[in-house]
Design a protein that fits this description.
Elements lengths: L6 H11 L13 H5 L2 E10 L9 E2 L4 E2 L5 H13 L4 E5 L8 H9 L9 H6 L6 E3 L9 H8 L6 E2 L3 E3 L16 E9 L5 E11 L4 H4 L1 H4 L3 E3 L2 H14 L4 E6 L16 H4 L7 E3 L6 E2 L10 E2 L4 E2 L2 E6 L5 E12 L2 E13 L13 H18 L2 E5 L3 E2 L9 H17 L10 E5 L15 E2 L2 E4 H7 L5 E8 H11 L13 E3 L12 E3 L2 E4 L21 E6 L2 E2 L5 E7 H4 L13 E8 H12 L1 E2 L7 E3 L7 E6 L13 E6 L5 E5 L9 H26 L1
Parallel strand pairs: 1-4, 4-5, 5-6, 9-11, 11-12, 12-16, 19-32, 21-30, 25-34, 27-33
Antiparallel strand pairs: 1-17, 2-3, 7-10, 8-9, 13-16, 14-15, 15-16, 17-18, 19-23, 20-22, 21-26, 24-30, 24-31, 27-28, 28-29, 34-36, 35-36
Helix pairs in contact: 4-11, 12-16
């Protein structure tokens, strides 16, 4: 610690002792001079949601990219460190899964005990101080996670995952990971003198991991609420001497209300007494940014949430997060007296590189990268027409059709000879790459011809396993009602421009269910909120739902092929909560697609058009955004029209709906009654004929 004696007092005392009473003008001093303040400027750096994007390489397009890659972020890290006397570096998880390199290491050439995972070959060179566990770390199971973490030279933390020992007493629960660390770090103050600061670091993960990776985690671990856990551990960290506390939640900001067990709890964590700064992630966004303007308690200029300096640096290594703290040592304590947070990107808004890749880091993972490139280039079959997802959010789409066809094929074979044989199989799929997270290049685009593994990985991004649920017709309808929440309500009484797609609705929750036909009436309000809670009880967007050409029987049983995320409750779909799973296949959905294509040899991915928008009354001006490349795939110029490309990189298109006949509400109800009456009469006639 710094010697606390006052230099100015020593000089004055020496002068008097020598008897040199020299008249002097009153000295010009500041309050800081008198107090001899100890001011330390500490820079805290964060990476998050790397998702194995180590090289600046797009494995799906098989080409180099300037938009992401830790080899580029590494250059930003070194620049930021060089600018500061004192710095710390942390990672916030979602590191081990997310691209073909992650799958190669986990599945194709599995990591063996004693081997170092490529992510740590790279990150160990960057001298991280500590890291947090993200939800995707659990995707390959705990054994793989433990083997991977053993190759890290820096420590890991997580406070809200506990060992499931079957004990019902929560006070006896033991953490699966080390819950927090207190790092002793030497820092240099603005006078050039050295101090030791104790930096407490604590990490959290969404408790929803117990749903998302139920197959890997059930019976082994449990997850608790992040805020509740913080309130338990932060006082302990203070009691153990932490001067400042850095919270690292793998969690988005969330809402201003705390309902408990939140997936996105950063806002709530900012209210926990004792937390000095927050490094967050999970939402694949940047903070501070205008996207979060207007939220109560959020200052996007300073980068604070309820006064707590906070940062979120994008995803895939696109940005580096910086929290610049000014600490004052006073009365034996360190206090944050000023702060500023920011992010730095590896490319500008047009995709032009701002830094070169770090060759040392790239060389460390080059061999693993090359093996992955060779693997993803290997062929599995052919497609007779292009497969892309440019229109996946506004029409039935080939990129979803391929997935649902493969899942249905798999489940129908799986149930042969079982009690479920003969029950109709439906299949649910959603667009994973549909401009997600505001990236205008983030679409599937596979040309006609040979299909390689890289193309299948592009179709299905996640290492989900195939599962199936047993439901009835009524549940199928509610499933589709939840999916239909992707669309904004269209007002037929205005000619003003109206966006069709609700940007707050995740595209991976827009399930299309193949095997039935239906229409979506976007003039009705959404029946469900995005959290699955009923929003408008009397509203029904799903119209004319049929199975095999007949109106859906609410009581008929169906098997719906899907993935482990959805089947276990992911996405908050009503009635789909893990209780009605009948198939937990060992195969990943991606491998199911690969095997399907290999068996077929050549596939025709044309969408079967099983869903459409219901006709609406009125000439409305409805638009949606997708890639400028979508323009070349417009086949129906009467329905879709290119308007122009925007500064964001997305292009705006208009969509024209089929016109319905003008019907007043009373007439609509009468026609509905007549339909039911006629339907019953026809069924009766058919039954009489069969007799």
């Amino acid at each position: 610690m710094k010697n606390s004696f006052n230099k100015k007092k020593v000089v004055a005392g020496t002068t008097i002792a020598l008897g040199l009473l020299i008249p002097q003008a009153p000295p010009s001093v500041t309050y800081a001079d008198v107090m001899d303040q100890d001011i330390v400027k500490l820079r805290i750096l964060e990476t998050t949601d790397i998702h194995v994007n180590l090289a600046n390489y797009d494995y799906y397009q098989d080409m180099e990219t300037h938009k992401y890659g830790l080899v580029k972020t590494a250059s930003l890290i070194k620049q930021a460190r060089a600018e500061s006397k004192n710095s710390l570096l942390f990672d916030n998880g979602d590191l081990l899964q997310g691209n073909p390199l992650g799958d190669y290491v986990a599945k194709v050439d599995p990591l063996q005990p004693g081997e170092i995972h490529p992510v740590y070959k790279a990150m160990n060179l960057l001298d991280y101080d500590a890291a947090n566990i993200g939800n995707h770390e659990f995707n390959y199971g705990l054994d793989f996670l433990d083997t991977s973490l053993s190759g890290s030279t820096f420590p890991y933390i997580n406070a809200n995952v506990f060992i499931d020992d079957g004990n019902s007493d929560p006070n006896d629960d033991q953490n699966y990971f080390q819950p927090y660390l207190i790092l002793d770090r030497e820092v240099v103050d603005e006078d050039g003198e050295t101090h030791t600061i104790k930096v407490g670091v604590i990490g959290f993960v969404p408790p929803q991991i117990m749903q998302w990776d139920k197959a890997h985690l059930e019976g082994k671990v449990i997850a608790k609420d992040m805020v509740e856990t913080a309130n338990e551990f932060v006082p302990r960290m203070k009691a153990e001497g932490a001067d400042i506390i850095v919270a690292i939640p793998h969690s988005g900001i969330g809402s201003v209300t705390d309902d408990g067990m939140e997936e996105n709890a950063t806002y709530d964590l900012s209210k926990v007494d004792g937390i000095d700064t927050i490094l967050f992630g999970h939402s694949h966004s940047t903070f501070p940014s205008p996207s979060y303007e207007g939220i109560e308690g959020v200052d996007i200029k300073k980068g604070t949430i309820n006064g707590v300096p906070s940062v979120m640096p994008g995803y895939w290594g696109s940005h580096l997060g910086l929290v610049d703290l000014e600490l004052e040592h006073k009365d034996g304590q360190w206090t944050v007296v000023n702060s500023q947070t920011s992010t730095r990107g590896i490319a500008d808004k047009d995709g032009n590189p701002l830094v070169s890749r770090d060759e040392e880091v790239f060389h460390a993972i080059e061999e693993d990268h090359n093996h992955t490139v060779d693997w993803v280039r290997s062929a599995v079959g052919e497609t007779t027409s292009p497969i892309n997802s440019y229109f996946a959010q506004v029409k039935d789409d080939p990129s979803i059709q391929v997935v649902t066809n493969a899942q249905k094929w798999y489940v129908e074979k799986y149930i042969q000879g079982t009690e479920y044989e003969g029950i109709p199989v439906l299949s649910a799929g959603a667009p994973f790459k549909a401009g997600t997270r505001g990236d205008a290049s983030y679409y599937t685009d596979i040309p006609a011809g040979e299909i390689a593994i890289k193309n299948v990985a592009d179709l299905y991004l996640y290492p989900n396993t195939l599962q199936a649920v047993l439901v009835d017709g009524a549940q199928v309808k509610e499933w589709l009602e939840m999916s239909a929440g992707q669309f904004n309500q269209i007002d037929t009484g205005t000619s003003e421009e109206q966006p069709l797609v609700n940007g707050a609705f995740r595209s991976y929750n827009f399930d299309v269910i193949d095997g039935v036909t239906y229409e979506i009436d976007v003039t009705k309000p959404a029946r469900y909120h995005t959290d699955g809670k009923l929003a408008n009880e009397d509203s029904h967007r799903i119209k004319n739902l049929t199975f095999e050409g007949k109106p859906m029987d609410p009581e008929q049983k169906f098997i719906v092929a899907t993935n482990n995320y959805r089947a276990s409750g992911g996405g908050h779909f009503p009635g789909i909560d893990g209780s009605n799973i009948i198939i937990q296949a060992p195969d990943e959905n991606r491998n199911v697609i690969i095997n399907y294509i290999m068996e077929k040899g050549t596939i025709n991915p044309e969408a079967d058009g099983n869903w459409n928008f219901a006709p609406i009354r009125g000439d409305v001006n409805v638009v949606f955004e997708t890639s400028p490349k979508a323009r070349q795939y417009i086949k129906d110029a009467r329905t879709y029209k290119y308007i122009g490309t925007e500064d964001s990189g997305f292009a705006k298109y208009s969509i024209k709906f089929k016109q319905s006949d003008a019907v007043n509400p009373g007439q609509e109800k009468k026609e509905s009654r007549n339909f039911r009456t006629n339907f019953i009469a026809n069924v009766a006639k058919s039954f009489h004929f069969l007799k």
